[in-house]
Design a protein that fits this description.
Length: 130
């Protein structure tokens, strides 16, 4: 009987590197990532890509719907309120930072910059990694 690791490795990967006796060109031609050779093949590949994208989107929506059904209406209301509060908090923080920078004079900025440089130099003299 095969062990779990041996049975898992018994299945070849989707893309297998060329074997010792097999030329590299032959394995590249057999892979599915090669360019389509005709208009029909190109159209088929485009349709497959659209189908795959639709399948992924549908799966995400199904997972989200399942999550909403399990949470219930009260939890969803609370979640919406938390999102709105976070958004409002983020907007307020961005405005205050902008206001702070706009309200600073050139003299204040120069003093702040000199103070920061002085702290950095003092830290290097002491041997601090700051």
């Amino acid at each position: 009987m095969l062990s779990a690791a041996a049975s898992y490795n018994a299945v070849p990967p989707v893309y297998a590197p060329p074997q010792a006796g097999e030329p590299a060109a032959a394995s590249a031609a057999s892979s599915s990532s090669s360019a389509p050779q005709s208009a029909a093949q190109a159209k088929l590949e485009a349709l497959k890509a659209r189908l795959s994208a639709a399948r992924q989107s549908n799966h995400k929506e199904a997972v989200e719907e399942d999550r909403r059904n399990k949470l219930g209406p009260e939890a969803l209301k609370r979640e919406r309120a938390e999102k709105a509060w976070e958004k409002k908090k983020g907007e307020a923080a961005a405005e205050t930072e902008t206001d702070k920078l706009l309200g600073m004079t050139a003299a204040d900025a120069a003093a702040s910059h000199d103070k920061r440089d002085k702290k950095q130099r003092r830290g290097k003299e002491v041997g601090d990694d700051g």
